[in-house]
Design goal:
Blueprint: E1 2-10, E2 13-21, H1 24-49, E3 53-59, E4 62-70, E5 76-83, H2 86-122, H3 130-141, E6 149-152, H4 156-164, E7 166-167, H5 170-173, E8 177-182, H6 201-208, E9 213-214, E10 220-222, E11 228-234, E12 257-259, H7 262-267, E13 270-276, E14 282-288, H8 290-301, H9 308-327, H10 344-350
Parallel strand pairs: 8-11, 11-12
Antiparallel strand pairs: 1-2, 2-7, 3-4, 4-5, 6-8, 9-10, 10-11, 13-14
Length: about 375
């Protein structure tokens, strides 16, 4: 794998930063993975449109065709499609034929993706930690990823490097937790499946790993291996304004904790990418704009109340992501107009980061 080396200056002097660029075979299979993943997602959407069942039910001596399904609130409903007749019999046959065709297409594409995952593993493309990838897939499957929840913290780096076609230092991307940025301004709609309707974030996490439990810090869940999931949101403005703390209505769900500075990330443009997990499976990640992410990380590294070890890691991560933006994600200029959700002093402080790799910011 080819190495590209970028120079940076820290308080310790001039250092270098290595990016591993994908080779031609890896790039080809990443593109194949992304295309097949999109086809699989489309097939799943088509299959979901046929979710539920149609069956004959008897009432007052007559047979009626009934459709069972989950509504947008996640509640199971049943509606009558009419008394038994040639029309309703055809309706039932058409529904079953559409569902069978959708299931067949989804299974074929799923098999194709399984083979693709094996190729990805052989080429060493696996990157996203498996537990984090499974959580992101679960959120995506319930219609929450990018629609009320974004991936924050270190896991967002996997989206930025996947779009860049490179890898950063593994030490900067390794993590044993995942931060979920909760946008409490709108109401999340759970997309239920035919098995169960889960109306809380904790229940969704427990479908990924049954050992997840809410801790005494009610914004956090932890599993038996010590993997942490934090639900976080921006500081309330004004402070007395009422806002939701939970994703669903379950009183035992995680309660989002308010953290300063997250409104910049919440208000930034969404950044979506398809990365590859440790088993070679594609995973969709929706994170904040990498320019805002890097500026926020640098701001964190300058805070006196931040732990020293975390400050140094924050700074290194900010520099790495800024270098990705200026050298690979060149369609994202460090432009003050596009970054108006950031305070001016935060923009000013981050500006040198985006010039270190030879690309001057447009301010």
């Amino acid at each position: 794998m080819k190495f590209q080396q970028w120079r940076r200056k820290s308080h310790l002097g001039v250092e270098t930063m290595d990016f591993q660029e994908l080779n031609n075979d890896q790039r080809r299979e990443v593109v194949n993975s992304q295309q097949r993943f999109q086809a699989l997602r489309h097939a799943k959407t088509t299959l979901d449109a046929q979710r539920g069942s149609v069956t004959w039910v008897e009432s007052k001596g007559r047979e009626y065709l009934a459709r069972s399904y989950y509504d947008k609130a996640g509640l199971r409903k049943q509606s009558s499609l009419g008394a038994r007749s040639p029309e309703t019999e055809k309706m039932k046959a058409d529904f079953e034929a559409r569902r069978a065709a959708a299931e067949n297409r989804w299974k074929n594409l799923r098999n194709t993706m399984d083979r693709q995952a094996a190729v990805n593993r052989a080429l060493g493309l696996g990157r996203v930690p498996l537990i984090g990838a499974r959580i992101m897939r679960a959120l995506d499957g319930f219609g929450m990823l990018g629609a009320g929840i974004r991936i924050l913290g270190t896991n967002a780096i996997y989206a930025y490097e996947a779009s860049s076609g490179v890898r950063i230092d593994p030490g900067l991307a390794t993590t044993e937790d995942i931060d979920l940025l909760f946008d409490a301004r709108g109401r999340l709609t759970f997309v239920a499946d035919d098995d169960v309707s889960d109306s809380s974030l904790l229940k969704i996490l427990q479908r990924v790993d049954t050992s997840f439990e809410r801790t005494k810090q009610t914004f956090r869940a932890v599993n038996r291996d010590g993997y942490l999931v934090d639900l976080i949101k921006p500081m309330q403005n004004p402070p007395w304004k009422e806002a939701r703390d939970t994703v669903g209505s379950d009183p035992e769900d995680l309660n989002a904790v308010q953290i300063e500075g997250l409104d910049w990330l919440q208000n930034s443009p969404a950044f979506e990418a398809i990365a590859i997990d440790e088993k070679g499976e594609p995973v969709r990640i929706v994170a904040p704009d990498p320019r805002v992410w890097a500026a926020h990380k640098l701001w964190l590294s300058r805070r006196a109340d931040r732990e020293p070890l975390k400050r140094k890691r924050d700074e290194a991560q900010a520099e790495a992501v800024a270098a990705l933006v200026t050298n690979y994600l060149t369609h994202l200029p460090f432009d003050a107009e596009q970054l108006r959700m950031l305070p001016k002093d935060v923009v000013d402080e981050a500006t040198p980061l985006f010039a270190k790799s030879g690309t001057a910011p447009r301010m």
